[in-house]
Amino acid sequence: MAGNALLIPLSRAAELIRDALRIGHVAAADRALTDAVSRILHAAPDTPVDPGVTERAPSVGDEHYDALLTTAYAYALLRHGTQPPTWMLELRPLDREWLWDGDAEASLEWRSFIRQRTPDLFLRKNILLREGDLEAA
Predict the structure, then answer these.
(1) What is the dihedral of CA 122, 101, 45, 124, to 10 degrees?
(2) How confident is the model at residue 2, as a pLDDT?
(3) Quick check: 54 and 85 in contact, CB under 8 A?
(4) I need a labelling partner for 63 at 20 to 30 A (CA). Which of 42, 71, 74, 104 fits?
(5) Mean pLDDT throughout 7-22?
(6) Per-residue DSSP letters for 26-38?
(7) pLDDT at residue 5 in the model
(8) Nearest to 123 by CA among 84, 67, 80, 73
(9) Which residue, 3, 102, 10, is CA-closest to 46?
(10) For residues 96 and 32, what is the distance between their CA atoms, to the nearest angstrom?
């Protein structure tokens, strides 16, 4: 992707996720997150990341999605070769392990399978997902 204008500020992604969650549209919240993160993951290595992209955002109203969004941005920035702000990396982990997209119905075997494929940054925040889950479809 060429141009910083294509990167979505964390605050805008949070707003989209908050609006979707408020009306119970989890799939739309997930799409907003994966779209925003994918833009960073697929940005050209020389794409500058404007400080506005990484400014703190208000809560989306769900601690799981707050942690997921912040950690996903930090992860994407690191993959891009950009050091994320310290506050993103120092985010407090969730109190208990959370499997994004399936926490309630996941078997112990499935959780273990996903845990083995979860990038370390997410494991440290008690979030289970596969790297490919962050890619927009």
Answers:
(1) 0
(2) 42
(3) yes
(4) 42
(5) 97
(6) HHHHHHHHHHHHH
(7) 55
(8) 67
(9) 3
(10) 24
